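Data availability (excerpt). The following record was deposited with the supplementary files.
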Amino acid sequence: MNEIDPARRFSAEAVRKFDGPADGDTPSGMNDVARQVASQYRRDTMSPIMVSGVLRMVEFGLLFLSGLAVYFHYVGFFNYLAWQYPVTIAAGSFLAVVLLDVTD
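Predicted structure:
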């Protein structure tokens, strides 16, 4: 019933009668709404996922540095258990950031 053949979509007579623009397609400028929408997508913007990832790294850094500060204040500079305390502080900071993310 409906047989559509792309080769016969336009007849030769219809193509000859087509009244198109004589000078070709002239490029038109963007209207104000399109320009406003295009300006919203800039290269220097950050996605919300990227912002939350950066904030997680900042939280980890602050927790780790505050843990090291407490360690240096109470124990001293690498006097006792030189590598165990920093590893434990890093693990605790990582665990805190993960748990804060899970509860969010």
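Summary of structural features: The chain has a mean pLDDT of 83.
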